[in-house]
Amino acid sequence: MIYLLLLPIILIALVIISQAWRFASRRYTLPCPVWMKWLLDSPFSGRVNARTQKTIGLIKVKPA
Fold it and tell me: Does 26 lie in the same domain as 51?
């Protein structure tokens, strides 16, 4: 019974947080949250992801 009360509250909180993050990221330069780093480059792939390579190419990072 309590789960039925908590679920909508949690979902509403997530929507509010995501909308606030979107609004703030348009006004200010915000880094990617640490908890989302797995979306950018998976540790299970064993190699640099194609999206990561594209980003590195766009910012013109060269190996030392």
Answer: no
